[in-house]
Amino acid sequence: MTNSTMGAGALQGLRVLDLSRILGGPLCGQILGDHGADVLKIEPPQGDDTRTWGPPFRDGVASYYYGLNRNKRIQFLDLATQDGQQRVRELMARADVVVENFKIGTMEKWGIGWEQIQHEFPALIWCRVSGFGEDGPLGALPGYDAAIQAMAGVMSVNGEAGGDPLRVGLPVVDMVTGMNAVIGVLLALHERGRSGKGQLINASLYDSGISLLHPHAANWFMNGKLPERTGNAHPNIYPYDVVNTGSSPIFLAVGNDRQFRLMCDHLGQPDLGSDERFATAGQRSVHRVALKAILEHILASHDGVQLADQLMAIGVPAAPVLDVEQALEAPHTRHSEMVVRMGDYRGLGAPVKLSRTPATYRFAPLVQGQDFLPDE
């Protein structure tokens, strides 16, 4: 997809000063920019750390950086200097939103923290992305995605049954924190429409990591039992797991009794759907080991990809297990415009689609900008 339309966007006219780096804050800024905000990103003279997080590199800048800094213009400032601090204060005077993820206390040391500027700019919305928030036993300490996955219990429920705890293969905590930061900005903007006042938003990696624990937290609240790692299988539902076929494995996501009976009928095994061990969701979960063995025996005569397509067509959720290249080149990925192309830049598209004010892609990463764009 190529979309460089200078359309309005849902957030046209919103001015965002992105002082963040690494992932959570920059992702927040990119999402706001995709939906029309004018995002001016301030980087230190050496640039955002993620410029070096490669390979691969293009013109000395890592792909990691390219993935998080679209629809922004950049300016280089040393905020540890008086000139840099004065320039940022001038930009704050024109901004609607500030996004930052400095270690708590850093901007205050420079005299440009929330406490120092909120009375000067009472309508400014300040979004702080941090590791653990400002206070509490871990307050103001730095946080990192993998460490939070470990501390928040995420690793404890991820991995093969009987195996060791395993980090999720994506920076899921950082990414969810960035999305939560966007939610916070939009909530604060809505409230500012009533009060005319800005406010401080705290989006911490730790809180976001804890928030990911469904359904394990809900299960523990009810029965007090520590969840065990179940590999690809869902702890509450079965078959909700990767199963082997005669060719490639597929994922079955059978969520209710009707879907299970449809699958059994399609496989020519109606008696399996009425077997008392498998007739209800609760029983299928209890007898999952036996059910998986039976299913894999039946599926050994089926082609995985073809079967997944057939099951989806009759309303039974199923999917082939694709690699990243296959997923990005899939026909539905193209149809959903989830790959963005601007010149030699390619990136992931905006997942939220608005009918009248869709996302637009106006600036590839690394575009220079010395100020906010002129008023419309």
From TrEMBL:
Residue ranges crossing the lipid bilayer per the database entry: none
Keywords: Transferase
A Pfam family annotated for this UniProt entry: CoA_transf_3
Gene Ontology terms, MF aspect: CoA-transferase activity
InterPro entries found in the cross-reference section: CoA-transferase_III_domain, CoA-Trfase_fam_III, CoA-Trfase_III_dom3_sf, CoA-Trfase_III_dom_1_sf
PANTHER family reported in the protein's UniProt record: SUCCINATE--HYDROXYMETHYLGLUTARATE COA-TRANSFERASE
Protein name: CoA transferase
Organism: Diaphorobacter aerolatus
